[in-house]
Amino acid sequence: MSSPVSIPFSSFIKIDRRKKDPVYLQIVYQFIQALNRHLLTHEDRLPGSRSIAADLQIHRKTVLAALGELQDQGYLRTVPGVGTFVTIPEHPNGDGGGRSRVQQPSEQATFTFKRDFVLDPPVSEIPRQLYFTDGSPDFKTVPLEELGRAYASVLRRESNPEELDNGNIFFREQLSYYLNVSRGFHLSRFFMLPLSSREQVFTVLSQLILSRGQVVLVEELSFYLANMIFSQVGARLLTIPVDADGMDVEYIAAHFKRGEVRAVYINPRSQYPTGVRLSPTRRSRLLELARTLDFVVIEDDVDFEFTTPKDHLKPLLRMEGGERVIYLGAFGRYLPPEFQMYFMIGPRDFIIEGEKYLNILGRPRYLMEKALGEIIHQGDIHRYQRKSSKLLSERKEKFAELLQLHLGELIAFSVPRSGLAFWIRFNRHVPLALLQEKAHKEGLMIPGLCLYQNKHMTALRLGFAHMTLKELEVATVKLQEAYSAVLTG
């Protein structure tokens, strides 16, 4: 019979009663860390629970709870009348507490599967260093603890499934009220489908209205996510020129006949990536063409919340009444991602059909929706919106000043009226891949999806809202230094 391990538990397990984790879980976590550091080995026999409790100066019941959890996880095995032994699942002779060893799969599959380059993501992993994005909010605007309390309150009160389902109805009613007040709509909850992500919105939309081979018109340099999903279902994407007044809708009139176009996808408030908005004349003309050429307008108004009141334009949905417009929107994009919602607005039968896809995309987040509904009902959302708008305005103004100060003669840009990013065009051709490399050496990451270059254009789409004023200053200086490094070779 082997002797118990000589190393005292107190040498690798430190109890911190200030932590929120229960003491027995602190023991479990640190015991597993000791295994990873090889302080304990396979088949080591542990001291008795009383000895461990005396060593750690805790109650024996706490030790028994920790040992029980470790045994359930396969790190210990007990032999009656003999003792408790360490079991390392990966050890050649270990059984992992009755569990069989699981090897990693091979690098290459031995079977065939479908590959789709259309779905290759352009988004790089977000680093810990200073970085730009293509336009991300600051998720720290609203304290997470405050949102957590709202969610916890619902969690304590709601328990039966029928009430949870009513939470979805409550959220839809509150959201439709909020949209009516903030966007001038006149709609009830029956004409709206809330979804958890933009990916879900575009997926449901494409399944409902697109078939293989049908033509979707998009703006030049348009939004990659929508393009990916529309292409994945087999739609033919054709680009329409964009100028200072937005999409050239007369190009549509000149090049397409009735029935040749299924849909036009457009962000009339803030075109991606340039940020230009569709002029009033073109907005009216686009709706006229939708009727005469028989196509659907997909209005993506995701940037509504990041538009100052003086710059608000009436959504196409309000102008046209919903006969030819499917409206895509966002709620609470300045909140942490877990609290954000997206939605589609359209005819009642269209929404009913869209709801069927929730069965395969995942059921609604009833508890979260109930919490968001209460945030609207209690008026907190207006407070959050005002705080977000104030920070956004300050950072937008500061970034414009910094760009003018450090790069003013080298670039052309205008302050965006909507959205979270500046469209910056360089006055001379420089290889953006090299600029990206030089910036990285300076400690600034510029993701590939922010770079736009062809023989006519050298431009960046740079998001500003996620940075503090100090971070914006440092990032702009680093960008200027990287640009200078490119010019000097």
What's the helix and strand layout?
Elements: H1 23-36, H2 49-56, H3 60-72, E1 76-79, E2 83-86, E3 130-131, H4 144-157, H5 161-183, E4 192-195, H6 198-209, E5 215-219, H7 224-232, E6 236-240, E7 242-243, E8 246-247, H8 249-255, E9 263-266, H9 280-292, E10 296-300, H10 316-320, E11 325-331, E12 341-345, H11 348-355, H12 358-361, H13 366-377, H14 380-407, E13 411-412, E14 421-426, H15 432-441, E15 444-445, E16 451-454, E17 457-463, H16 469-488
Parallel strand pairs: 3-15, 5-6, 5-9, 9-10, 10-11
Antiparallel strand pairs: 1-2, 4-12, 7-8, 11-12, 13-14, 14-17, 16-17
Helix pairs in contact: 1-3, 2-3, 4-13, 5-13, 6-7, 8-9, 14-16, 15-16
Describe this structure in words.
The structure is a single chain. With 489 residues, this protein is an alpha/beta fold. It has 3 domains: 9-86, Winged helix-like DNA-binding domain superfamily/Winged helix DNA-binding domain (Arc Repressor Mutant, subunit A, Orthogonal Bundle); 130-137 and 385-488, Aspartate Aminotransferase, domain 1 (Alpha-Beta Complex); 144-378, Type I PLP-dependent aspartate aminotransferase-like (Major domain) (Aspartate Aminotransferase, domain 2, 3-Layer(aba) Sandwich). It contains 16 helices and 17 strands. The protein has helices spanning 23-36, 49-56, 60-72, 144-157, 161-183, 198-209, 224-232, 249-255, 280-292, 316-320, 348-355, 358-361, 366-377, 380-407, 432-441, 469-488, and strands at residues 76-79, 83-86, 130-131, 192-195, 215-219, 236-240, 242-243, 246-247, 263-266, 296-300, 325-331, 341-345, 411-412, 421-426, 444-445, 451-454, 457-463. It has a 7-stranded mixed β-sheet, sandwiched between helices. The protein has a 4-stranded antiparallel β-sheet with strand order 13-14-17-16, with no helix packed on it. A two-stranded antiparallel ribbon has the order 1-2. Helix 10 links the parallel strand 10 and strand 11. The chain is globular. It starts with 22 loop residues before the first helix and ends with a helix.
